[in-house]
Each structure stands twice: as structure tokens, then as C-alpha cells.
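Quick question, first post here. What does this chain look like in 3D?
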Amino acid sequence: MNHPISRLVFVILTLLGSSFSYAGVPDCPPDRDAGLWSIMNRLILIEFETDPIGVATLLDDDSRNGQLGEVTADAQRRHDDLLKMIREDLRELDTHGFTEADHTDADLLAYWLDDRIQMSELDRWMMPISSMSGPQVWLPQLGSRARMQGEQDRKDYLTRLKRVPIVVGDTIDNMRLGMDAGRVPPRVIVQPAIAQALAQASAEIRNDVTRSPFYLPYRALDQNDPVAVDARRVIAERIIPVYTELALFLQNEYIPACRESIGASAGIDGVDGYNKALAHHTTLALTADEIHDRGVMEVFRIRGEMMEVIFQSDWFTDESLNAGIEWDDGYAMFDAFTEFLRTDERFYYSEPRDLLDGYRAMGKLIDGHLPELFSVLPRLPYGVRPLPDYSAESGPTAYYYPGSAKTGRAGNFMANLSHLDQRPRFEMLALTLHEAMPGHHLQVAIAQEAEDQHPIRKRMGFTGFVEGWGLYAEKLGLEMGEGELGLFVDPYDNFGRLSYEMWRAMRLVVDTGIHAKGWSREKAISFMQLNSALSMHNIEAEVDRYIGWPGQATGYKIGELKIIELRGRAEEELGEGFDVRAFHEVVLGDGALPLPVLESKIEQWIKDQLGE
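> Answer (accepted):
Ran it through. C-alpha cells below.
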């Protein structure tokens, strides 16, 4: 630990449960239990050591701005041991005299720690690389997220650059340990990482290191500035060579050692490992069979709604577009319509900039309708930015990056602008609702801005809640505006929304099919192609994502179904007294929660509204 408090002292203090001062760690409020608050302080410091970038904004602490966090095997195991010690201390706390806020924090802390300790048994750090994860993906994005508000920031970022080769080297060591232990991922998800690594050591960058994404924060500097000169040297002499080394390791050693099988149940952790992943991501005690069956039912329901939208489209009424279709064959009609969507030029942009501008325009349209459904909106703004070129080829359609008012960084909806013939316009509205507002940005920013809450609470993320909210937010577009279908006045946009909902329903079927039922990659791709208008490129990228991230994809639909269930319960019991803006406020007010905790919270809110 590069801090005046030595690692030995830190461990001793953790073992003793001592409270100690540290910049950014909040003092215990007078109405809170000091022992519980001390445990939360110690835990956020453990997280700060592991993730100095992500936790710095939570603590408003720039003391580790030159750090990247250790990823060595020793660091991983030490972190797991510290979590176990914290859990024992939490278990031994005297809860007499706890306030309601204390009980809530203690219960959430216990849940979060138990889950992380259980997941640590899978040693996922031994399999750190796929097309979506690894140092070839996250490290090159440091420059676009770095704070550059003064000389010290520029020096801190340079220190981080010098640590990049250490992290990459330690990652390679971890993968070698995984090879020795038989803990290796499916080969198909690692192959794209070679090109991603080589992109950081391309001929273009070797000839001009200022083109490296690592150099981005220094491009506006005087190129004779000593920090800029040193940064170019570090990139040329250390970063480019280590990414070349990573690519060669993956190609010559790692990929040959990876397994051909794709299901988690066929891996070293077997069915038990997959069940742990399902529980982790859904936060519910559901079996793979239960999730699979629920997915099949949702696919059937959504497909019926998609057929209704087809009947509303001009494709259905224009015989020149649907000539030769057997109208009594629903499958033939669906296939013909989705083929029309995949191939008609009117649904696609020809220039990346136009796609980016289209997302930005949709964001502004949505923003104007948010007060209809929300009484509390975040202060932090968001933007729409393109995925970096080096990750776009094998990257997802989009994702969200949280921002921070403290560091002067807006939240960002990251849009994939590659393969424009695979990015249809009719999917853009649903995607913007999910990634920006009222989806991830609204939920995450509100959680960040919550007052009187310990920063460890803001560190907690639960896939079922976070991604369930994102999917729920897509459907809220139906309630915005004055039209019968809200913002989805165009049948093709509504079909795109349903296609995205179908996408998440198919995940329940495909994820469990791959990891619990022995499905092949080809069967998964075929199932998704049969039931959606998703492009083949997106389908293949998604299936590979499910292969590499067991269970995660099930959290979206499971979480959305729970939120819809809870809203329906509130509407039924409160009748005319139901206020959707108040409902959304109570759902989002405490940040991300395990779904059973959210359910208890909504049940109590309903009772309070009824005066019980």
C-alpha cells in the first residue's frame, strides 16, 4: 500500500476493529452507531486500496490518484481475507440501540459481504480477460476519464502510466496461475483480446506515440513540457512493449490452454459455480430451470406483441414490401419482416457522426419529458460519446460510464459507432432510455448524490436492480409525452423497443441454456436470430458475452419483472392514491438494493401510504 499507513498497520487496525482517521473517510454522525460506522470506514479503505480510481470520487480523496490498485494473486487473496475479517466483526456487533438506518446499513453490508465472499471462491481473477474485460480494455480508457485540472493531476496521471506495465504483467501472471489450476475460460471469448492488445502497439502508435489513447490528456500540452516528454517515453519504452508481450502470450500460450467447451457447468466450478453466479446477479434464490422457463414464457408473450406491431407498420400495408408472404404462417411473416428491417437502407445511418448526433438528439427529447415521471432528478449532466475504436469491433452496442461532479466529469452513454449496417435507427430510442435517462445515468447519479449515506453504500451495485431498472426505463418511454404510445409513436421504434425487451428475455433462455443445459454457441445464435430483429453481428457478440460472463445477463429481465411486479402491487393497493413519481422516488432513493430488500421497502411504503 503506497500510503503512510503501512500494510501491516492496516491489517492490525482491521483485525482490532479500530477507528482511525483518513482523508475522505466520514466522521460518524451523532445519531449513528460508532462501531458499525467504523466497520464501514474500514471497508471503504479496503475498497480504496483495491480500486483507487472508482473509490476516489466517493471519498473526495485524491491521495491515490497516481495508483491503479494491485491485481497480484497475493493482493487478491489479501483482499478476500480482509473481507472475511470485516464480516466477522460485523457479526459480533451489539445491535442494541441501532437506529433504523443502522439496521438497514448492517443488513445490506452483511448481504454484500456474504455475496462477495461466496463469489471469491470462484477465483475469477485467474480468468481476467475476454473481449469485454481485461487490461487491454479498461486501461486504455484511463486517459479519457482522467482529471486534468492542474500540474499535480498531470503528474499523477504520469505515475499511473508508469504502473500500466506492472498491471499487465501481473495479469499475465494470474492467467498462468489459472492455467496451472485448470481455471481457464472458453477459447472463443479470448480470441478478440489479441487484436485489442495489438491495437495499443500498432504501427501507427509506434510511429507516433501521441496517437496512443494513453497520451490523450497530454495532447493539449506544450509538447516540450517535461511531463509530456516523459509520458511519450513511458508509452514508447514500456507500454507498447508490454501490450505486444500480452498479445504474444495470449496467442502462443493462453488461447491454446483455454477450453473448447463454453458452458460454466463444464468448467472447473461446475454447476455449483453457475448457481452462485445466478444468485449474485439476480439477488434472488432462483434455479437455472426456473429462470429458463420464465424466459421461455416471456419470449412467447413478447413475440405476440411484436406481431401486433408488425400489423401496424407500413410494411404490412404495402404489398410491394411483403409480396409472396404466407399470411397464415406467423413464423414466415416474422422472418420476412425482420429480414426487411435488417436490409432496408432507410433504417441505417451511413456516417458514424450521424448516428452519434441521433443519439444526442434523442437524449434531449427524453430529457424534456422526465418531470412527468420523476420528482427528483440528478444534478450531474451526461453526454453521449463513441466507444474507442480499439474496443468497438468486438464491443457491445453501448454501455454507461458514471461521472462525478467532484472531478468535473459528466456521466457518459458510450455508443458503438462501428458496423453502421448493424445499428438500426429503430433501436436507438430504447437504447437511449436504457443507458442515459431515465435509465443508468438517472439511477446512478441519484445514488451518488444521496446525502447522509456512507460512501460504502454508494459502492454497492446489484445487477438485478441496476440492469432491471435500465430495462424498466425503456418501457417508461411508453408513458412519456401525449401520444397513445408515448415517445414510441413510430411503429418501428416500438418494434425496436420490443426487440430489446425480447433480447433480454432471450438472455434468460440462452444464458441458462449455455451454462446449465449444454447448448452450443450455434444453438444460442440460432435461437436469438429466430426470435428477434437483432443483427447477426450483435447476436454473435452478445452470445460470446454470455459465454464469458455467466449469469450476468439474467439480471436484466429478472430485475425488470420484479420492479413491474412491485409497481403493479402498489397501483392495485393504493388505487387513485398511487403516484408514479413518488413510487420512482422510493425505488431509487437508497441507491442499488438487492431485490428482496427493495420488495420489503416498497411493501413498507405501501403500508405508510395507507396509514397502516
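Residues 7-121 form one domain.
The chain has four domains: 7-121, 139-260, 279-559, 561-610.
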